[in-house]
Design brief:
This protein has 476 residues and is mainly alpha-helical. It has 19 helices and four strands. The protein has one domain: NCX, central ion-binding region (A middle domain of Talin 1), CATH 1.20.1420.30. It has a two-stranded antiparallel ribbon with strand order 1-2. The radius of gyration is 24 Å and the shape is globular.
Length: 476
């Protein structure tokens, strides 16, 4: 492309604003133009049905599950059926949100478009986390009833694992079937895996702090002169999590600023290499598109459907767990699968078309946003609501995250992919899903808790007995 301004290699936030942009017409990027304006119902539903690719179009046959879930929620008490219908209905709703975000991004300069598309792809996850933390109430019922924090923690790490193992594995697999081997630019893998390592390190600090000091706490509050009790340790971990979350969110905005302002950012490399490799680029440009008005309507409709269905899902979680589905499997596998459905379909379609750099970023980018922004955001929201949401993950979860990053980093090191590597990543994900199914619920398993302390394991002391011991010690 020639001319006095090349918007594909110019930063999103340039130092000076150029006088004209020949590649834009009426402020809309060429491949995002619909040739229409306003809202046209017939064209709107035609574009919605065709969606972004064949797989996304087939997903639209699941739309009847959305009104069915809403009807069941208000007229029946069939909890498992409501959960199942809402779960299936989430797929086309999230798919529409992803497609509408993609249409909106196409109407922007390309660098801005990828940032916007990635952000819209995480809206489902942010809504899920916010609904879970708002619904959390550990004081309801007995034991862990109403305690949704373990599920939120599992969902945070499950989102990262789903993108790194399942989505990336399917991209490598289907891309490898059609193209045998696909080469991607080193900047994509190096920057992506590097940011993931930094984010994982920060996320795991509270867990490491807790594990290192749990054996130093005293089990009897008020019975001894020691002040470092279990409660004090938990309060310290909560404060560390809250402060770390602020730092991570700042780091996320620094990352966004760098990508938006640097001419040599990851986006420029991705666009430059993959722009002309898309196997169906001409077909995509020839497809009818939403107008800006239709795009905004599609975004509003999809966000409304997603929010309603996620509320229904969260309300039925207790009944699903009581039916035999473990907490860890629900948070680590089931919820991330459905809220990431649209992103996965988009990434797999891009890998199939040979746009492996963009596909790779759609796997790594959401993982980075989950670790640097979405997860920390729910900690801060919990802080504002007075709910003790922290980043003290189970040791089982910690091990899964670290090992997954190491496995993915090893596959990215050589700079190319094939179907075998993709199949192996999916196999690793399936093994994790099997282990999560058999992992006990938090009220049984506390691998990062105090139950394993020598000398106090399996000890139960009533409040009356604790008070008697305190009085005896005071008398002595």
């Amino acid at each position: 492309m020639s001319g006095e301004y090349n918007h594909e290699s110019t930063p999103l936030l340039p130092a000076t604003i150029p006088r004209r942009i020949p590649t834009l017409t009426n402020g809309v990027a060429h491949e995002g133009e619909s040739g229409r304006s306003g809202f046209h119902p017939r064209h709107f539903f035609q574009v919605l049905w065709r969606s972004s690719c064949t797989v996304s179009m087939l997903v639209n046959v699941l739309w009847p599950f959305v009104p069915l879930a809403i009807i069941l929620h208000f007229v029946t008490k069939a909890h498992l059926w409501i959960f199942a219908m809402s779960y299936v209905g989430m797929v086309p709703s999230a798919n529409l949100l992803g497609f509408a975000g993609q249409e909106f991004a196409r109407k922007m300069p390309k660098v801005a478009g990828i940032l916007i598309e990635t952000t819209f792809g995480s809206i489902v996850e942010i809504i899920l986390f916010l609904v879970l933390i708002v619904k959390h109430n550990a004081e309801e019922g007995n034991g862990d009833e109403g305690n949704l924090i373990p599920i939120i923690q599992a969902a945070i790490l499950g989102s990262v694992l789903t993108n790194l193992l399942l989505c990336l594995g399917l991209c490598f697999f289907f891309g490898g079937i059609r193209h045998q081997t696909q080469k991607f630019h080193a900047i994509v893998s190096e920057v992506g895996s590097g940011l993931l390592l930094v984010a994982a390190f920060a996320l795991l600090i509270p867990s490491a702090f807790y594990s290192a000091l749990k054996s130093e706490t005293v089990p009897l509050l008020g019975a001894l002169h020691e002040t470092f009790t279990e409660r004090k340790l938990q309060e310290d971990v909560l404060k560390i999590s809250q402060t770390t979350s602020i730092v991570l969110i700042v780091a996320f905005f620094l990352y966004i600023w760098f990508c938006a302002s640097s001419q040599h950012s990851i986006f420029d490399e991705v666009i430059e290499m993959d722009e002309h490799r898309d196997a169906d680029r001409e077909d995509d440009m020839a497809k009818p598109k939403f107008t800006m008005t239709e795009t905004i309507i599609a975004l509003l409709v999809s966000i409304t459907c997603v929010t309603l269905l996620l509320i229904f899902l969260v309300e039925e979680i207790e009944h699903v767990v009581e039916s035999g589905v473990p907490d860890q499997f629900l948070g680590l596998i089931l919820l991330p699968l459905v809220e990431k459905a649209a992103e996965h379909l988009t990434a797999i379609d891009e890998a199939w078309d040979g746009v492996i750099n963009v596909a790779l970023y759609h796997c790594l980018g959401p993982s980075i946003q989950t670790a640097l922004f979405n997860g920390p955001l729910v900690v801060l929201v919990g802080w504002a609501l007075g709910k003790p949401m922290d980043l003290n993950f189970e040791i089982f979860m910690v091990a899964l995250l670290v090992l997954s990053i190491l496995v993915v980093g090893n596959f990215l090191r050589d700079g190319d992919s094939n179907w075998l590597e993709g199949a192996l990543l999916v196999v690793v994900y399936v093994i994790i899903a099997i282990a999560a199914w058999y992992y006990p619920n938090p009220d049984v398993a506390a691998s990062n808790g105090l139950e394993g302390l020598d000398g106090v394991k399996n000890v139960t002391i009533s409040v009356e007995m604790l008070e008697q011991i305190r009085k005896l010690l005071q008398q002595t």
